[in-house]
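[09:14] KT: can someone run the structure on this one? pasting the chain below
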Amino acid sequence: MNFLTPGVFTVMRKLTSFTFATALLLGAAAFLAPAAELPAEGGKAPDFTLQSQEGKSVSLKDFKGQWVVLYFYPKDMTQGCTIEAHNFQRDQAQYTAKKAAIVGVSADNVDSHQQFCTKENLTFKLLADPSKAMITSYGSLAANGAVAARNTFLIDPQGTIRKVYTQVKPNPHSEEVLAALGEFQK
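[09:31] RB: done, structure tokens below
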């Protein structure tokens, strides 16, 4: 018995086309869905707890009483991300003098962060967010949904977001943040 008569074959072909077209539309809708909004300046910084390159849990509350430079970046060991990290490391003493902690976040895992810190001599915290939950809560998921967008949040000692930087340029960024920090601390 042959079930693939011309009529059944035509119906199956139409269903397959419909299924494929539906999958394309759903995929496009997910891609075009609005990203989570950036937390606003003047609002409370979303709390988080993630693993650092040392494998230790780090939370926003751990920095209470300090300024926090919370920066999101796409990927360890890439050119722009390495430049940005080097500049924050270069200026580490100035941040410390201003009672500010530098905290980087990407979707890379703890092992990748550990390798990145070792290779590039980074001493500040890098937090691993492979689930992208924190990245999303800060409205910092890149349009492709695979990595973090290059955004930075300057958070005051009370946990309030004082400044938001989006689409950061890696080279001048640390200096921009230091200048803003100086203005807020006047």
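[09:33] KT: thanks! The mean pLDDT is 87.
[09:34] RB: yep, looked fine to me
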